[in-house]
Amino acid sequence: MIRCSDRLQYVHSDIRGPLYLEALRMESEGTSVLKLNTGNPGRFGFALPNSVRQALALHIDEAVPYCDVRGMPDARNVICTYHIGRGLQGIMPSDVFICNGVSEAASMILDALVGPGDEILLPSPNYSLWSNNSYLSGGQPVFYRCDPDNNWNPDIEDIRSKVNERTKAILVINPNNPTGAVYSHETLMAIADIARQNHLVLLADEIYDRLVMDGLRHESLGAIAPDVPCVTFNGLSKSHIICGFRCGWMVFSGPKGELDDVKAGVMKLASMRLCGNALTQLVIPAALVDSESTREMVLPGGRLYEQREATCAGLDRIEGVSYVKSRAAFYLFPKLEKEKFDFTSDEDFAMKFLHEQHVLVIPGSGFDWHEDIRFRIVMLPEADVLTKAMDDLKYFLSRHRVK
After folding, report:
1. Is the dihedral of CA 337, 339, 342, 345 positive or negative?
2. pTM of the entire structure?
């Protein structure tokens, strides 16, 4: 048998891994499964905004040829304007690269920035896109702890203790996946200060910046640290319900010339794949002007807000489950009190929950979290469906309590 590359040794994608494959097997045999494993709004009845639909219909012929490898000029202009409005300083459209989702952007930046022996500081819990691309680039992910007792803000002293001569960058996922946290100004300033003192690059995954609830204000990391080299990642997959369009981008900011060599490396990689999906890029100008369709989802009465409330209310009725209420996106990362249940691990819990109640969630270890038994809930189904799912969880846990 021909073996696959050793570079895949540590790569894992639990969101679409063994549990997901088991759910597909069950469905093939006629079992209905509620999939709370992936943040894919279009699968749960969220509609495509009219602004996006009209932009696509009116300009589709413009997407027939290859476009600029960095992205269509009109789209990059609007992205640049958007991020200037979010506080980034000194950026130009030439600092913007449009990619096939943030997934491709993450791959490009780490291939251009990280080499063998280099380390990148990643949060725990962490979205595995980043750890996987760290491994594939030949680098080494080093995880810093986010603190559930401090609203999941990163532990600044833990970050500081893990910086060494091999450290190249610090990744900050804010708003966060999988916790739904929105980091405080003080936390962001402290992280920026560590990067400043150690000449590190800040990588700011901010794709959920438009899906913030409870009147909180999201601050862009590159905006509060204009003197630190930063690459900001964003896109339309979640805020405008177009995951399948694969619409993401990255923006270089910071001291003039500091990231030019890395940007040239990204340019080489962008050229290799000729261009990003041109159909996707047609909708960016209209989508970024249309903030109302996004905003209405996160206000009281909006779908995302009410689905979060229903999920939290359901969890509140279950003894032995605790959580930090999410403030953005559509994720929750609850904890099970291990001593109260008979589960041997978070994977054991998730597989039994799938088999017995036909609900698919992803264990915390899939997000590089190993302190206790946690799992991520994707709160995208209608509120009544989530209420029933939490009732199913309550019944399931009652059967697995330690006597």
Report:
1. positive
2. 0.94
